Amino acid sequence: MIILGIETSCDETAVCLIETNDKSVKIIGNQLYSQIALHTQYGGVFPMMAKREHAKNLVPLLQKCLEESKFFKLKVENQKLKVLTEEKIEMVKQILSRENDLFDDLMKLAEKIEKPQIDAIAVTNGPGLEPALWVGVCFAKALSKLWDIPVFPTNHMEGHILVSELKPKNENAEKTTEYTINQTDYPAIALLISGGHTQLVLVENSLEYKIIGSTRDDAIGEAYDKVARILGLPYPGGPQISKLAEKERQEFPNKIPPFPLPRPMIHSHNFDFSFSGIKTAVLYTTQKIEKITDSVKQEIAKEFEDAVVEVIIKKTSEAVEKYNAKEIIIGGGVSANKKIRKDFEELANNIGIKLSVPEISASTDNAFMIALAGYVNILSGKKPKTDFKASGNLSL
Q1: Which domains does the chain have, with CATH numbers?
Q2: Which pLDDT tens digit goes with each residue over 241-256?
C-alpha cells in the first residue's frame, strides 16, 4: 500500500510517501519546508503567514516527493482529456476556492503528469493552527477528487505517538528509510511535549487513548521559547536554552544553582502541568540581576531546564505507577531534548519499563508520522471521509 501524508499544522509544510507491508514501513519520498527563518523575526509563528507559506509550497513539495519516489511520470499527449474533465476541474476549483494560487499550481502539475499510484491520502486535520490546517485539508480533498484517492483525516498527536514505536530495520545504516512497527506494551503512558502541547495520555490499547493530564497554561515548548525571549535568545528558544543548559552542566557539574526556580505543580497529586509560573519566576529573577551576562544566562537556562524536566519525570512516573503501565512513550518536538531523553532512559532503567522515543528527525512535525498514522488507522478498519473539517483543538 502506498500512502501520501500531508502535514500543515503549524510552521512546517511537509509531504511524505510511504510504502507499507504488514508491520513494515518504507519511506519512498519525503519533503519538508521549515518556515522558522520567516517567523524568527517576529519571535513566534504568525498563523496567516504560515497559511500563505503552506499554500505556496505544497505543490512544489508534492512534485519533489513524487520525483524522489519515482512516481513522477509525464503524461502522453491528449491524456489530459481523459483525466481532467471539466466537471472534475470545477469540483477541485470549488474545494480550493479560497486558495486560487494553490489551485493554479495544482492544475499545472495535474496537466503534465500521470495519476500517481497512491492508495490513500492521510492529512492532519488537527490539532494545530486552524488557518494552517485548512490549507492541508483542502489540498488533500482536492487531490482526492482529482485522482480518485480516498482521504483519511489524521490526528497530529496520534502521529507523534505512533512514530515513536518505529525501529530502523538497519540500525547501523547512516540514513534509514525502512522501519518496523514495534508492538506497544499495553497499557502505556504517552508523554506528548511540544510547542503547543503538554499531555499525559493513557494508551489502553491500539488507537485507544485517554488524556489523564494536560497543561493548564503554557505548553513546555512554549515556556522554553518565552524564557529564551526573556534571556534575549533567538527564536525558536528551546534549542538555545538546551544548549546553554548543557554547557553549564559540563562546565560546572556540581554547582549549586545561584538562581533557584520553583517546580510547578510537582506536588499537586494529579497529572496536570503548569509552566506559566516558572516563566514568570525567570522574569522576576532577571529583573533583580544588575547585568545579565552569558554566564548568568547559562545558570538560568540550566535551572529552568532542570525544573521542568524534574516535573515531567515525576508526573510520568506517578502515572506509570497508578495505571500499572508497561511502557513509556515520548513524542513531540521537545522529545528531541538531550536531557529529557537521558533522564527518561534513567527512569525506565530504574523501574524496569520499556521506553519508546522517536528518532530525532521524526520528533518534530513531519508528514512521515501522518502517513504512518493513516496506515495504522486503515489497518484498524477506519473508513475514508469527505466531509471532515480542520479542528485546531482536535483531541485524541
Answers
A1: 2-164+364-379 (3.30.420.40), 184-357 (3.30.420.40)
A2: 999 999 999 999 999 9
